[in-house]
Every structure is written in structure tokens, then in C-alpha cells.
Specification:
This protein is α/β, with parallel strands linked by helices and 138 residues long. It has a domain of 96 residues: Muramoyl-pentapeptide Carboxypeptidase, domain 2 (2-Layer Sandwich), CATH 3.30.1380. 29% of the residues lie in helices and 19% in strands. The chain has 4 helices and 6 strands. It has a 6-stranded mixed sheet. Strand 4 and strand 5 form a beta hairpin. The longest helix is centred in the N-terminal third of the chain and has 18 residues.
Length: 138
């Protein structure tokens, strides 16, 4: 997996017009995020904003070990690697709309988790020990 490139991630990504929320925990920086994960999130966010006239709300991105433990994250969470995002939804219809959108846009998301108010998606690979083409609930 490609390491983040400073020239790519230091653009004003935390305040992008297409995304609400933060891309990393309080102890992280944009340089902790993996470039492919950022590219996927931004591509999806821009398309979602244009087609649904609404921004995706990121509730969790990169997490350090301390913040991951506090959030109840798995020991091998893709959030720790900067390869995962959680997107907030307000109701069942919005959850369905976001899931349908994520699965129909031809990007390399092979792992989805659905919680009571968020959808987790990541780009963790089989080589890294992540089960592929799966959906789970919290």
C-alpha cells in the first residue's frame, strides 16, 4: 500500500466542502492517513454531494491506539492504519442510500460494517489479514 505523500495530504482536506467531520483523531494528523483511503473518501464524497446534494459526515477516521481503545475498536482495526472511515447517518433511509451509493460506485471497498448511527468502510486487504467482501453489524 502506498504511503501518504505530504504534498497530497496537506491540502486543506480537514475543511473540504464535500466532507463534514474530522479525518483523524485528536492525536493524529493527515499524514497518518493512507493516500488510497483519502482518495476513495474524497472521490465518494464529491460524487455523493453532487448526486444527493448532501455531504457525507465522517464520524471517525484515523485513530491512534488510545483513541481506538476508547472507541471500542478492534485490536487490528483498519482505523489504526489510516485505512478506514465511519460515516454518520440519521435514519434508515439515509443508511440505505449511503450503502447503496458505496456499493454501486465501483471503488475498492470490500468491507462494510453497519452500526446504529454509522457505516464503517475500509480498504484493508486480504494480505493484511482482513476478510474481504463482507458486511457486519455492531
Amino acid at each position: 500500500m502506498t504511503e501518504p505523500r505530504e504534498e497530497y495530504v496537506t491540502r486543506d482536506m480537514d475543511t473540504a466542502d464535500d466532507i463534514d467531520g474530522s479525518l483523524h483523531c485528536e492525536h493524529g494528523t493527515l499524514l497518518d492517513l493512507k493516500t488510497p483511503a483519502l482518495f476513495i473518501l474524497y472521490s465518494l464524497s464529491r460524487t455523493y454531494n453532487k448526486t444527493h446534494n448532501k455531504r457525507l459526515k465522517v464520524s471517525s477516521g484515523y485513530r491512534c491506539k488510545e483513541c481506538n481503545a476508547r472507541a471500542g475498536g478492534a485490536a487490528k482495526s483498519a482505523h489504526l492504519r489510516g485505512e478506514a472511515f465511519d460515516v454518520h447517518y440519521d435514519n434508515g433511509h439515509e443508511c440505505y442510500t449511503i450503502l447503496k451509493f458505496l456499493l454501486s460506485n465501483g471503488v475498492s471497498i470490500h468491507r462494510l460494517g453497519v452500526g446504529g448511527t454509522f457505516i464503517h468502510f475500509d480498504i484493508g486487504s486480504a494480505d493484511e489479514g482482513y476478510i474481504q467482501d463482507t458486511v457486519w453489524t455492531y
